[in-house]
Write a structure and sequence with these properties.
This protein is an alpha/beta fold and 564 residues long. It contains 20 helices and 17 strands. Strands 1-2-3-4-8-7-6-5 form an 8-stranded antiparallel sheet. Strands 13-12-11-10-9-17 form a 6-stranded parallel sheet. The termini are far apart.
C-alpha cells in the first residue's frame, strides 16, 4: 500500500470518528455541561446546609450565655427597667401567674420577667423562623425534653435543650402532622428558672438595680387592714415595694380566708424584685394568731419539762402550721428571762426564770422553726423579763448596767446568736445606764455598740411595733423611725395604721436625701434583708388548702406526750 492510499484511509477514518462523536453528543447531550450543572446544584445545597448549621451553632452559643439573636439582654441577669430603658414601653403587657409578658413586635421579641428580673427571652426573628424541626435535631441531636402545648387554637411541640449555666433553649413549632411532618419554628425561648434569680453570693448585684424607694420599702414591715386585699395594702406593694407585712388575729378569720388573703397579697407582689416577708406572732400558749388550730403549750410549760429537745419539736409543729397558712416569718421564740413576778407582759411566754434554761430551750425553739424553713425572731432584746410595765401601754425602764445584763438578760440572746439566729427584735425599753435618751429600739448604744459590736450579731435587726404606746406617747412615728434606722435597725415594724407606715417611709426617705442617714448604711441594711430572704428560699408562690386535721392531730399528740 502506497503512501497516498494510506493518507486517504486515515482521513476517512478520522471523518467517521468525528461524525460518530457528533451523533453521540447530539443524542446524549453535553456531559460537561450536565456535570457542571449537577456540581453547581450540589454546591448550593451544601452551602444552604452549611448556612443553617452555622446559624443553629450561633444560636446555641448565645443561648449558653442566656442570650439570643439581635436581642441585647441576658436571661437571669437583665433587669426589666434596663429593657424599658433600651426599648421603651412595650406594645402590650400581660400579667400571669408565671410572670409579666412584655411584647415588642418591632423587635421580634417578648420579654418575660418576675420580681423585676428577666428570666425568659423569646425571639420571633425571621432567621429563627426559617429553620425547621429536622434541621435542629440533625444539627444538635435529639432534645433533652419534648413537651406539647395546646391552648386557644395553638397546638405546639416544644423541643428543650438543657445548656450550661442552668439555661434552657426551647424551640417552639406547630405540632407535626401527616400533612406537615417537618414544620418551621414559630419562635425560640432562652429560659432560666425564676426561682434561681436571687444570687446569694452577689446581693450587691440586686442592690445595684434598686431605686431609693425600693430600698426604703424593703426596710418596712407594715400591718394590713381588714380580711382581704384593699387599696391601701395594694398601694404599699405597688408604690412602696414594701418588704413585708404582719398579720394579727382580726386579719385571720378562718383558714380558707387567711390563705386567700395571703395569696392575694403574694400575687400582687409578683412584679416586684423581692418576695415578701409574711409574718405573725405565733408563739404558742396565749399568743397565737392562726385560726382553727388547737392550743399549743406555753413556753413556761415546755421549759418545766427540763427537756430542751421538746422546745424544738413544739416549734417545728408551729413552724409547719405557719408554712401551711403561707407565712414565712414568726416573731418567736421569746427568749426573755422571766425574772420579775410582777411582769405583766412576759410571764409564761418565757421558758424559765433561769437564764441558762431560757437559753437552752430558746435555741432549740429557734432550730424548730428553722427546720420548717420559717424565719425565727428572738425577742425582746436586750431583755423584757425584768419589767413591771407593758410596753404596749407605756415605756418600761430597766435600771441595770452592762455587767448586770450580762449576768442574766443577755445570756439567752448571746447563746441563740452563737447558734445561728438570723433576726433579733429589739424592745421598747429604756435602759438609762446604757442610754438615758432613747429606748433600746432607737438606741445606737444598744443596737450598734452592744448587739452588733459586743455580741457580734451580723443578721437582721427589727424593732418591736413602733405603734405601741411606749413609742407613740413620746414621739411622732416619722422621727422615731428615722432614729431607729440611724441607731442600727434594718427593719422597722409598723404594725398598725397605713398612714403611720407611709409616714415612716416618707421620713426615712427625707433623712437619706438630706444626709441624716447615709446611703451606705441603707445599703448595708437592705443587703442583710436580701440575704435573709434568699437563705430561707422565700418565694411568692401560692399556698394551697391548710391540712387542718393533720396539724391539730400533731398538736394533740405533742400535748398528750407532755401530759404523761
Amino acid at each position: 500500500m502506497n503512501h497516498r492510499l494510506m493518507k486517504i484511509i486515515f482521513g476517512v477514518f478520522l471523518a467517521l470518528l468525528l461524525l460518530g462523536l457528533s451523533l453521540f453528543f447530539l443524542i446524549n447531550g453535553n456531559p460537561s455541561k450536565e456535570t457542571h450543572n449537577a456540581a453547581a446544584s450540589q454546591g448550593k445545597a451544601s452551602s444552604k446546609k452549611q448556612g443553617s448549621d452555622q446559624l443553629i451553632d450561633r444560636i446555641f452559643t448565645l443561648a449558653d450565655k442566656g442570650q439570643t439573636l439581635h436581642i441585647p439582654f441576658t436571661a437571669g441577669k437583665t433587669d426589666i427597667e434596663d429593657v424599658r430603658g433600651a426599648w421603651g414601653s412595650p406594645d402590650s403587657s400581660t400579667k400571669t401567674d408565671h410572670g409579666q409578658y412584655e411584647t415588642y413586635p418591632d423587635r421580634n421579641g417578648v420579654i418575660v420577667h418576675q420580681n423585676q428580673s428577666v428570666y425568659d427571652i423569646r425571639s420571633y426573628d425571621p432567621q429563627v423562623r426559617s429553620l425547621r424541626i429536622s434541621q435542629i435535631k440533625k444539627s444538635k441531636g435529639h432534645p433533652d425534653e419534648v413537651k406539647f402545648f395546646k391552648h386557644e387554637g395553638a397546638d405546639q411541640v416544644i423541643l428543650i435543650y438543657h445548656l450550661h449555666g442552668r439555661v434552657d433553649l426551647k424551640w417552639v413549632a406547630p405540632r407535626p402532622t401527616d400533612r406537615q411532618s417537618d414544620p418551621h419554628i414559630d419562635y425560640l425561648s432562652v429560659y432560666t428558672d425564676p426561682n434561681r434569680l436571687i444570687d446569694p453570693e452577689r446581693p450587691e448585684a440586686i442592690l445595684s438595680k434598686m431605686s431609693l424607694d425600693e430600698k426604703i420599702g424593703q426596710m418596712i414591715i407594715a400591718g394590713v387592714s381588714g380580711t382581704s386585699l384593699d387599696a391601701k395594702t395594694r398601694g404599699l406593694i405597688r408604690q412602696n415595694k414594701i418588704g413585708g407585712f404582719i398579720f394579727y388575729a382580726p386579719n385571720l378569720v378562718n383558714p380558707d380566708q387567711s390563705v386567700k388573703l395571703l395569696n392575694q397579697i403574694k400575687k400582687e407582689n409578683e412584679g416586684n424584685r423581692l418576695p415578701l416577708l409574711l409574718s405573725l406572732d405565733q408563739e404558742g400558749g396565749r399568743v397565737e394568731r392562726l385560726p382553727g388550730l388547737e392550743n399549743t403549750l406555753a413556753a413556761l410549760r415546755i421549759g418545766a419539762t427540763g427537756q430542751p429537745q421538746l422546745a424544738r419539736q413544739n416549734a417545728s409543729i408551729i413552724g409547719l402550721a405557719d408554712k401551711s397558712f403561707g407565712f414565712n416569718l414568726d416573731f418567736a421564740p421569746v427568749v426573755d428571762v422571766n425574772s420579775n413576778p410582777d411582769n405583766p407582759v412576759i410571764g409564761d411566754r418565757s421558758f424559765s426564770s433561769d437564764p441558762q434554761t431560757a437559753a437552752a430551750f430558746g435555741t432549740q425553739a429557734v432550730k424548730g422553726l428553722m427546720d420548717q424553713k420559717v424565719i425565727p425572731v428572738i425577742k425582746h432584746f436586750p431583755g423584757h423579763g425584768d419589767t413591771s410595765v407593758d410596753s404596749h401601754l407605756a415605756l418600761p425602764v430597766v435600771n441595770k448596767n452592762m455587767s448586770e445584763l450580762k449576768q442574766l438578760e443577755l445570756i439567752p440572746f448571746e447563746q441563740a446568736i452563737k447558734d445561728g439566729a438570723d433576726v433579733v427584735m429589739v424592745a421598747h425599753i429604756l435602759l438609762p445606764k446604757l442610754d438615758k435618751t432613747y429606748p433600746a429600739s432607737m438606741s445606737d448604744r444598744v443596737m450598734t455598740d452592744l448587739l452588733r459590736n459586743q455580741l457580734h450579731f451580723n443578721g437582721v435587726i427589727v424593732t418591736d411595733d413602733m405603734t405601741m404606746k411606749a413609742i407613740t406617747n413620746q414621739y411622732s412615728l416619722g422621727p422615731a423611725a428615722v432614729q431607729s434606722v440611724k441607731a442600727g435597725a434594718d427593719l422597722v415594724l409598723v404594725g398598725h395604721d397605713y398612714t403611720q407606715a407611709r409616714e415612716a417611709i416618707s421620713a426615712i426617705k427625707a433623712a437619706v436625701q438630706n444626709g441624716e442617714i447615709s446611703e451606705g448604711q441603707l445599703n448595708a441594711s437592705v443587703t442583710r434583708i436580701i440575704k435573709l430572704k434568699k437563705k430561707y428560699q422565700l418565694t411568692d408562690e401560692m399556698t394551697g388548702n391548710v391540712p387542718l386535721n393533720e396539724l391539730n392531730r400533731e398538736i394533740r399528740d405533742f400535748n398528750r406526750k407532755l401530759a404523761h
